[in-house]
Amino acid sequence: MRLLSTPVRQLAGLALLAAALPAAAQQPAAAETGKTIQPILTGWRFHQAGKDNWQPATVPGCVHTDLLATKQIPDPLYRDNERKLQWIGKTDWDYETTFDVTPALLQRQHLELVFKGLDTYADVTLNGTPLLHADNMFREWRAEARPLLKAGANRLLVHFRSPLNEVADLPKKYGYNLFAINDEQAMGYVGDKGPVLSPYTRKAPYHYGWDWGPRFVGLGIWQPVQLEAWDAAKITDFHVVQRQLSAQAATLALAVEVEGAATASGPATLVLETTGPDGQPGPRLEQALTLQPGRHTATAEVQLASPQLWYPAGYGAQPLYTFRARLVQQGRPLDAARTRTGLRTLALRREKDLYGKSFEFVVNGIPIFAKGVNWIPADIFQTRVTPRRYHQLLQAARDCNMNMVRVWGGGIYENQYFYDTCDEMGLLVWQDFLFACSFYPGNPEFTDNVRQELTYQVRRLRDHPSIAIWVGNNENEVAWQQWGVPEKMGSHKLEVWSNYLTLYRDLIPTVLHENDPSRPYWSSSPSSDFEDIAGSQTTGDMHYWDVWGSTAPISDYEKQVPRFMSEYGFQSFPELKSVQQFTQPADLDIASPVMKEHQRSAVGNPRLTEYLLRDYRQPKDFASFLYVSQVLQAQAIKLSAEHLRRSRPRTMGSMYWQLDDCWGVASWSSIDYYGRWKALQYYAKRFYAPVLVSPHEEGDQVRVYVVSDRTSALGASLQVRLLDFAGKVLYQQAAPLQVEPLTSKAYLAIPKDKLLKGRDATKVVLSCALTAGGATLSTNTHYFARPKDMALPKAGITATWRQATDSTYQVTLRNKTLAREVWLSLAQGDGFFDDNYFDLLPGETKTLTFKSEGAATLAELRQRLVVRTLAEAF
Q1: Which of 58-67, 818-827, 849-858 has the lowest mean pLDDT?
Q2: 280-305 pLDDT, tens digit each
Q3: Per the database record, which ranges form the Beta-mannosidase Ig-fold domain (predicted)?
């Protein structure tokens, strides 16, 4: 049934629009919306079902944070408290509140109670009468509440059933276990087979435990609750479809989905307004339509002249257009909606070439080397992640020259603030759907539940220009092919595989075709699209875990030349200040029970120690072990990331695991749970630089590569020097370069015997610097021996402070000899140095900027500064 009843008319400016519309439609936004929203976020309380010990609750929130806030449990992340709190996920809980409804509100045609997110199995009653039943954390739940509401106070009760008890019998019922990973101990799980139950529940998989996080199978009202009142019609969706885009013009379709009440009839007007990135008004449209019962879509076309294009970080600006739709009938506003987007072309280019088939993102015609990181939820209790925390983490990615984040399929669909911030910062989003390391039921009830989840989430997120690709799952294809899953499924393997194809080859593509056909879809990560095995080096993307996951040498990173590396990583511990936040002094030993508890992998500490001792001597104490573990992690990922970048264009992506951490733990993150940057985060800023100089030993030569993400050629100067640890120049060479755009190329090759000339390789360092226009673009060092084989000089670094602003300082470092892995921190208090974990060459100075997080004088900063180098760690 067509909603559009008259042709679109584009109006020439504000005056004409004002003359054409009823006066009521010209009121400010607050007065225009006939639909009203009454938040229901206060007065909540909770208790364990069956008990009468009601306590105040916070909504949005979860049972663990409410128990913590009311002092009923200790801090779940402190020491080994996790094990003592597993009973919470096995228990039913009640949440209730009362809210007032005015007699006037009861006169509205529709009063819908809306839950933006319920985690997970919930029975909702209103004034003692059942209203709805929920069974999916990732869906919005709404129900017509008008028949159950009354004037005055109304009692709303949400009864949550234990996510563990709810599905405890399903593996036996199905006759097989759908969880793909056999070695649960190695994955760090606690308790009674919680992960086995994850595939049966549409709940964040990481809640059941993972190798980087604890198991807190919680529940609660994790998104806002509201009462929506509307009459003849409301807008249920507003979407911008980009039909054509060039530098000269953009043709957009504004699609507005309208739901009419059962009695809806008569003419109405749809008003569409555009605001440019500069805040100036753009084209305005009005469209006549006839209201009818049910949902219908009206589409209007908008032309924009000389559109401003949205680019990933490092390639251009991120202008964003705002669009607004208003529904008006007989001068009375019915509803309004708003969306924001950026205009860009984006494709996943997969073409046959010398190496197989390419895998590269092309944005506005530019092939983008994806420099990025995997994103996991930033807290085990998601509602504790504030906008400030989101901004800090994403800003850290942007500041370290990243242009892509992968939202991992074992976590959650992130909130609006996350995607808005990615839009603003130019961070492309690789978006997994939330299926991870498991196989899933195929019964109609489960499939329909998932279909509604997917439809809701795709429609919610599709206008974000940052989202670059939808991906079906995390590691399920590789699990089937290489983890022995078919054998594990026994006689059910054909059924399980059929369910897999139904979900990832049929259902998800169908939902995307209906709701977002513009973006590429990839059925799994890693995947070869069944052109080869998953994780192939000739086609598709790759996850590589032989380094760390087994005991393969770190040098094996350089044997991997995939088309796109979407996951690889190496572990380290947080620094001592962070460890002290979840321990007591007696716990400060790598072998203590508490430290083992905060190492989720059973093989983690022995493996980390084994890797460390291959390249470094035994650290002298606990704090030194933490420090050297971070240096080891940073060096490992640096080796891989630079190799991947040097392999351009064969390889077109590097996303290490992982940016953030959801609790205080030994993990693969480059920023710890408490927000402190590890060595890896500082390293990333250098190895992801827009122009990178990267020396590399190849046979009997040292080849010096320059990798450029710039879209135009660059005149630069390359300087290479071999120094001894006291600063004597043993070899030097300078060369002017014309750095080619969007390439990796070796611009210099020096025979090793020409460099070393028989000198002791354990006592020299190769320094490379690339400069242009008087500015240093990239520096790098290369060593010819392992740190354990070097006699590094003890540092005698001097530091000179000066105050730049009220909270910003500069510190200049000097040292006569080589200082490796210089790490600056404060003995008391916190702050941020803009560079850290760097090599200070002999005789050189380096000036850093420091931002204090608290009041501190220059004298206090001088006294509190701690300078650590690798030589002092043993």
Answers
A1: 849-858
A2: 999 999 999 999 999 999 999 999 99
A3: 792-872
Determine the pLDDT at residue 192: 56
**Which of 7-16, 606-615, 699-708 shows the lowest per-residue confidence on average (mean pLDDT)?**
7-16
Which one-letter DSSP state was computed for residue 193?
S
The backbone region for 484, taken as left when phi is positive above 0, alpha when psi lies in -120 to 50, beta otherwise, is: left
Query: Per DSSP, what are the bridge partners of residue 767?
Result: 721, 781
DSSP H or E stretch at residue 396: helix 387-399
Cα 480 to Cα 493: distance, rounded to the nearest angstrom? 10
Report the amino acid identity of residue 509. Answer: P
CATH of the domain spanning 691-789, picked from 3.30.450.20, 2.60.40.10, 3.40.50.2300, 3.10.250.10 = 2.60.40.10
Q: For residue 839, what are the CA distances in angstroms to 370, 677, 801?
A: 27, 17, 20
* Separation of alpha carbons 866 and 811, rounded Å: 12
CA-based Rg of the chain, rounded to a whole angstrom? Answer: 29
Specify the CATH superfamily of domain 38-227. Answer: Galactose-binding domain-like (2.60.120.260)
Q: How far apart are CA 874 and CA 865, in angstroms?
A: 21
The answer to whether the 38-227 and 798-873 domains have the same CATH topology is no
DSSP 41-76: -SS-EEEETT----EE--SS--HHHHHHHTTSS--T
Percent of the chain topping pLDDT 70: 95
- Indicate the pTM of the whole model: 0.94
Contact between 79 and 27 (Cβ < 8 Å): no
Alpha-carbon distance of 478 to 835, in angstroms, equals 38
HSE on the CB side for 323, CA within 13 Å?
Answer: 28
pLDDT at 186: 42
- Mean per-residue pLDDT, 326-345: 96
Q: Residue 193 above 70 pLDDT?
A: no
